[in-house]
Amino acid sequence: MSDISLTIEEGAFVSILGPSGCGKSTLLYIVGGFVSPTSGAAKMKGKTISGPGPDRGPVFQEFALFPWKTVLGNVMYGPRQQGVQAAEAEGQSRALIEMVGLKGYENFYPKELSGGMKQRVALARTLAYHPEVLLMDEPFGALDAHTRTRLQNDLLNIWERDRKTVLFVTHSVDEAVFLSDKVVMMSKSPGRIRQVINIDLPRPRRRNELLLDPRYQKYVVDIERMFDEVDETGSPL
Amino acid sequence: MTSRLVPMNVVLGLAPIALVIAVWQGLVSSGLAPASLLPPPGIVFGRLLQQLVTWTYQQEIASTLFRLFAGFAIAVVLGVGIGIAAAANPAINAVVRPIVRVLAPLPKVALYPALLLLLGFGHGSKITLVAADALFPILLSTYYGASSVEQKLIWSAMAAGTPRYEILFKVVLPAAMPSILTGCRIGLVISCIVVFLAEMITSTDGLGHVLVTAARTFQAVDMFVPLITISLLGLILNGLLGVLRSYLLRGFPEA
Amino acid sequence: MISAAALAKRVAPVFACFGLLAVWQIAALALKNDSFPTAIEAIRAIPDILGDKEALINILASLRRMAMGFGVAVLVSIPLGLLMGRSRAVAALFNPLLMVIYPVPKAALMPIIMLWLGVGDITKTLVIFLGVSLPVIYHSFEGAKAVEEKMLWSGAAMGLSAMQRLVWIVLPAALPEILTGCRTGLVLALITMITSEMIARQSGAGNILFNALDMGQYDTVYAMIIIVGAMGICLDAMFERVRARLVRWSEPQFDLPLSFS
Q: Which range, of B4-13, C59-68, C78-87, averages the lowest pLDDT?
């Protein structure tokens, strides 16, 4: 990656879109503080990011749930780590599990859940410690198409409630347009920001209405065309 | 389907064991093997039951078990400790790795004479030998498990506010648990075998000693009894560890 | 060209050897115990043992039996393990029997087998054979079980018979795992050999160890420990080189031996 300069406003839903290998996940990991940039710096509210912290909560494509903990145990992990009393943490966590639609599964282990359910738990686990920014790394990439659209809808509904800042990495154009206020288009090797597109579509968004909306269709077509161009600059064929 | 398959498998599995016992009985009954060399299975198992209730035999089992557990416990503590430390810290890794590379393939039993000279003929030398033999499988599988913990598991915990030193106990140790328990299982069986052999080579009590005493007086029946006892102990301990494993790993897939 | 890191990796075990010997030397000097000679004294005694014709013949005979036992065990165990891995019936047939044999201390069978077959080569080789078989069967079994089903389907589609699939697909695919088992088996062969010699007290490296112990020749005891240790390390290192060549295509493994079951 080189010459990345990007500022994200509070409360915005921003997608980072690009072909595989452009470093879009790495960008997210730098913001998360999991890896440090070889040069330059990432800042949050003016302070340089030096490591992971509960103000930035990741949701990974691989779910990364703790297999030795139940659904409830996974969701309670963050609050307990923050020093919240057990009873209080449990109450909050149960509410969150209900919010992501998994009421009744509190005592299940991750291995007993489907992919979509696991990702709901992962989202609840991250929301449980109230991060200011959600860092989502192709969170729906490992799910089938049907589960994927359902989770997109549910994510938007949850997001509408408190409008946290979201940084969302994806390689799916319609996912990016459907969810975001802003799409950051990256190009392949070296990873650079190609263009930033504002998505001016009304919220709350309903999938069935949006799919028929010509403005939505235009965004998708334009970005897809751009996607083809950046992909080609990367490969000489 | 499965309900029919399972008893089928049990029958299949018991067949060779039954066959071994039948051949054993047949050899004795037909007179091909004299009973002084190969006592019939009925007599051996009868003798085993008879011995198991005697106080002296229980004493022998107790001293064998004491050495076994002491050695195994030391091996678990050292193996898991060093394994995790080597996986977590590059400096420790650089020191431990070549030493393990040299010591792991070394036949530990060769150290036994030296242990006898240094620690005497009592418990100490045998416990040390058991620990030395059980250490490496536990250490290596801990190291393997701890160094292949999914990175994003650690990141998730760090983002939730877990300090670095706590990551070791809250994420790395539980995530490496399947691998650690596999190592412990191997280590436990090795412990059983080694404690018995050490007692055979030189001892004044324990199951291995019982076998050697019987061998000196050519008491074939009494040679089989301690051997079967230690093997049964191995099977039982292995089973108990299996139960513990499925409890500890109830959340893990394929456990 | 060897990179600096690779060079360090190769030299590190040598340093570890010297380090361990140095620790020994210092400990012996500090303890000043008659029955604990220094490393240098022990190393000085090595040429005496290797110069002694009888001892040398004994050790070589031990190694020959070990090679025999190991070789036969590998030849029998690999096909059995592969069959078990690919056929549920064969696995169901042998698994319980192997599970029962697994915790039996193989070297402890020495006195019993001696009773039947005498103290000859057959007894000693048989005990080694028993010691080596189990890990090789187990790893071959695991390796064969893990072979991708679709690879076998492709083979069947190309017209390979079940037997040909076992030899041309399952065997190479399971080879990394099989070799892990053989590596464990090799170390176990040495261990079983030494232990059974210690128990039988007739001849061989294990016997030399305890004879020297009985006669109070402590430097010989320690020298012999070094020799046996060196045998273990050399055998393992040699096998590791062979293994690395044979399965160059496979995913890089940990360069540490993983199991000693």
A: B4-13
C-alpha A172/C-alpha A110 separation (Å) is 26
Helix, coil or strand: residue A186: strand
Per the structure block, which two tokens stand in for B240? Answer: 């108990």
Summarize pLDDT for C28-79 with one digit per residue, the tens. 888 887 788 888 888 988 898 888 888 888 889 899 999 999 999 999 999 9
- Distance CA(C73)–CA(C82), nearest Å, equals 14
B contact test, residue of C195, C224, C227, C254 with most B CBs within 10 A: C195
Alpha carbon distance B11, B81 (integer Å) = 43
Q: Is A7 exposed, middle or buried (0-12, 13-18, 19+ CB in 10 A)?
A: exposed
Which residue(s) pair with A198 in the sheet? A182
Check contact A-B (3+ Cβ pairs < 8 Å). Answer: yes
Tell me the pLDDT tens digit for each residue of B180-219: 999 999 899 899 999 999 999 988 899 999 999 998 888 8
Cα gap A191→A234, rounded to integer Å: 10
Q: Within an 8 Å CB–CB cutoff, is residue C95 touching chain B?
A: yes
Radius of gyration of chain C (CA): 22
Strands A133-137 and A13-17: unpaired
Q: What's residue B1's pLDDT?
A: 43
Return the DSSP state at B169.
I
d(CA C111, CA C116): 9
Q: What pTM was computed for the model?
A: 0.88
How big is chain A by its Cα radius of gyration, in Å?
A: 18
Whether chains A and C touch (3+ CB pairs under 8 A) is answered by no
User: Residue A135: helix, strand or coil by DSSP?
Assistant: strand
Averaged pLDDT of chain A:
89
